[in-house]
Amino acid sequence: MDFELTKSQKEIQKAAREFAKGEFDKELALELDRKHEFPTKIWQKAGDLGFLGVHYPEEYSGQGLGVLENIIIADEFCAQDSSIGSAVVLASFATECVLRFGSEELKQKYLPPVAEGKMLSSGAFTEPGHGSDITSLDTTAVREGDEWVINGTKTFITNGGMAGFYCTMCQTDENAQPSYRGISLILVEAEREGLSTADVGDKMGIHTMATAEVNYKDVRVPVTNTIGEEGKGFYHVLEFFDESRILVAAQALGIAQGAYNRALAYVKEREQFGRKIAQFQVTQHKLADMATKIELARLITYKAAWNYDQGPIDPKLTSMAKMYAARTAVEVADEAIQLLGGYGYMTEYEVERFYRDAKITELYEGTKEIQKNTIASAVIGKLK
Which of 72, 148, 202, 250 stands 20 to 30 A from 322 (CA)? Predict the structure, then answer.
């Protein structure tokens, strides 16, 4: 058992840290947060330098690396800035559906532009009336000849309105029992007639990322846009979640680390009652608790990534990583605000933004309650 990163992984970690430190400007981050703007130039530069899609094979403009290398980058980016980092690491959201299950034609057409920072991607799974329940859908795809005709609405869609395509879950067999056996996953290009998007409105955090409602009205796409097997979309998405939840765990981990770094720097400089705040035992205990939580979150997140690369996939482990890292992000960011006191509540000191950006990691890619369901199911097993 070896807990050390390889030489190559350490070089990737260092490169990601240096890139983020050089590009993720604090004032720019604050401006983007205020204006709710995507960090386009930074995202494009990250693509130029090969930080996007490192887990794609080289023939799709990737580096042929694993999930572990991808989450190392996510960890470093989000530690430098919770908003810019999150936007960049989720720029390729849902492309793993194409990578793992798509046809060669779909891979060749859509993975390279995402890896090169030329196109955003998106997964359209959640519906207004169903939320976390993706076993039954109102969005339908009816086959007419060699085309699918899609109707329905998706909501809370990351990169919605900006993505070049949407990996869309559709009910293709309304008579299937149970209903999730009739769900298919279909790639729908953003420019298709009948597809429209609308911003969901003001959000608590992740202001640099677009979140939209996506509407499909008689949208026609070729049957060749089906990702994986017809009727297997539910299973494909479940397997995708096992990978994407590790990325969200890394996002949360980085946010926790970034909030901690800022709190630590502050208490080592700030004086109260004639002493550095860091000299008070209560402060030291807070820092000890925060550091311990981050270390534990990093261990389980990196283990989950390593395990995914080794195979077979362990849904229990990926859910544990996502649930614990997300909780750690919220708790550490909250404590960081407390350590900064009134300054922690001020935008300029950043930790309040880290706190706002942290909370979403407990919600998307399955709420913490959904993760507990997955973990409990694995622990209990089948009851006789």
Answer: 202
Tell which residue, 222, 285, 294, has the closest CA to residue 254: 294
Residue 119: φ, ψ to 5°? -150, 135
Token pair listed for 140: 């339908």
With vertex at residue 304, the alpha carbon angle to CA 301 and CA 309, rounded to the nearest 5 degrees, is 130
**Residue range 12-32: average pLDDT?**
97
CB neighbours of 11 closer than 8 A, spacing ≥ 6? none
The pair of structure tokens assigned to 236 is 């494909």
Provide the residue type at 369 as one letter: E
Got the DSSP string for 190-223? Answer: TTSTTEEEEE----SS-TTS-EEEEEEEEEEEEG
In CATH, the architecture of 121-232 is Beta Barrel (2.40)
User: For residue 116, how many other CB atoms are within 10 A of its CB?
Assistant: 16
- pLDDT, tens only, 264-314: 999 999 988 999 999 999 999 999 999 999 999 999 999 999 999 998 999
Concerning whether 189 is annotated as a catalytic residue, the answer is no
Question: CATH for 7-115?
Answer: 1.10.540.10
CB of 135 closer than 8 Å to CB of 237: no
Per-residue DSSP letter, 174? T
Name beta bridge partners: 222: 147
Catalytic residue among 230, 335, 362, 365: 365
Question: From 2.60.120.10, 2.40.50.320, 3.30.1490.100, 1.20.140.10, which CATH number describes the 235-380 domain?
Answer: 1.20.140.10
Residue 381's pLDDT band (boundaries 50, 70, 90)? confident
